[in-house]
């Protein structure tokens, strides 16, 4: 076998190793980003849902505070959706849409409760994802 063939095979092998390392680097980056930011964003989401729950006792009196809380929650959920993937990203994107719809309709109590329940659902999905990632390490 000529030396040029060996060099060609080595070059192809080097390219495959480079692509494998590049893919692993992307996974490491996403795990780091997840462990650095997502727990903080999950805590903020819990705070938003807790505040919203308290305000749902008298939505007419708390309409301005509800609007402010929904605006803050939308920012948190949008940031969160950029940092996760899969089913959790789909849920976060759906929740952001639900929050925007709720903001447009005003103080519709049924829609506010649906938004609150969607927040709780996303929180549970985040908890499960965090536990799953602990086992992957």
Identify the notable features of this structure and list them briefly.
4 helices, single chain, 137 residues, mainly alpha, elongated, 88% helix
Helix content: over 70%
Mind telling me the C-alpha Rg?
Answer: 22 Å
Q: What's the average pLDDT?
A: 88
Count of extended strands:
0
Name the shape in a single word.
elongated
Strand content: under 5%
Count of all domains: 1
Task: Give the terminus-to-terminus CA distance.
Answer: 43 Å
Largest sheet properties: none
Q: Classify the secondary structure makeup into a structural class.
A: mainly alpha
Q: What order do the helices and strands follow?
A: HHHH
Structure annotation, total helices: 4
What does this structure look like?
The chain has one domain (38-136). It is 88% helix and 0% strand. The protein has helices at 3-55, 63-81, 86-105, 109-136. Helix 1 (3-55) packs antiparallel against helix 4 (109-136) and helix 3 packs antiparallel against helix 4. It starts with a helix and ends with a helix.
Describe the protein's topology.
Layout: H1 3-55, H2 63-81, H3 86-105, H4 109-136
Helix pairs in contact: 1-2, 1-4, 2-3, 3-4
Q: Can you describe this structure in just a few lines?
A:
The protein is mainly α and 137 residues long. Helix content is 88%, strand content 0%. It has one domain (38-136).
